[in-house]
Amino acid sequence: MTPRTALGALHIGALMFGLTGVFGKLAAASPAIIVFGRAAFAVIALAIFARFASNTTWQKLQARDWRRLLVSGLLLAAHWVSFFIAVKIAGVAIATLGFTTFPAFTVILEGLIFRERIRANEILLVVLVSIGLVLVTPDFNLASQATSGLLWAVGSGLLFSLLSLNNRASGRIPPVQAALCQNVVVALCLLPVAAPGLAEVRGLDWLWIGLLGVFCTGLAHSLFVASLAVLKARTAAVVFAMEPVYGITVAWLLFAETPTLRMLMGGALIIVAIVVSGLMGSAKPGKQAAATADAH
Question: Which has the closest alpha carbon to 209: 82, 73, 30, 88?
Fold first, then answer.
């Protein structure tokens, strides 16, 4: 893969990740069923990628690795469920912007868990995200759907941050292997909850869930991993800042979710924070391997 094709693959991966909320809204099913189906289809897609990709490595796992993968799978399941609840309640735009607060949580939690000093530019990151959230929220009435959905989305971002930190601690596990195992845990975890309603899911909804699992999870993650073999992590950080832009734009066109000027300003601040966070993260050793194991 050349740098040019790798950059193209990275943009396609960012677009696919950005469509996560769109497919979740199109599927008229509960968040539990959507997440179960997404994980099941993602397992198939990742298994095929691992089988045919020549550079895919497979690590013999120890007991501690299995424990960390189990925790990661549970965090991933909770992250996805809370995100799709936000999509159903408040729409794609608010859910996506609320989720993208995870870099701010990562900065704070990383300092607490790994006892790393929080630098001035990282404090600026948290401030930018906080201001962005204030602008994105139409009002602070907990009874309103927008506020309730935003809280679910921010909770989803917090869970994703915890997932990222757990994956950082599990850095010895190859990214595709980690993603495959985590999705198996998600599917098994959600199966008891989703099973009673699976027979009632329409064929069209299975199409949206299948696209979500194969393209927005399995293929997007595979493109992300493959492109990082050629490109720098800081390049990936800037490209993936486009993820919420893609998602909000498509939701605007499909669902007439027209963002207000205030929401656009808040979203711009949060996206700037994503870029800053990614550039800072790529400058630190060991971050790239951990980042590739995460997939929204």
Answer: 30
User: Taking the CB of residue 15, how many other CB atoms lie within 10 A of it?
Assistant: 21
Parts of the chain with a pLDDT under 70 = 53-56, 114, 116, 118, 138-143, 170-171, 233-234, 237, 277-295
What's the predicted TM-score (pTM) here? 0.85
Q: Where are the domains of the chain?
A: 3-292
Residue 186 tokens read as 């998600």
* Burial class of 84 by CB neighbour count within 10 A (0 to 12, 13 to 18, 19+): buried
Residue with tokens 């293929």: 219
Which residue blocks in the chain are alpha helix, DSSP H?
Answer: 3-18, 20-26, 31-52, 63-90, 92-99, 102-113, 120-136, 145-169, 175-198, 203-213, 220-228, 233-240, 243-255, 261-282, 287-292
Per-residue model confidence (pLDDT) at position 283: 55
Q: Which amino acid is at 216?
A: C
Q: What is the dihedral of CA 206, 212, 194, 296, to 10 degrees?
A: -170
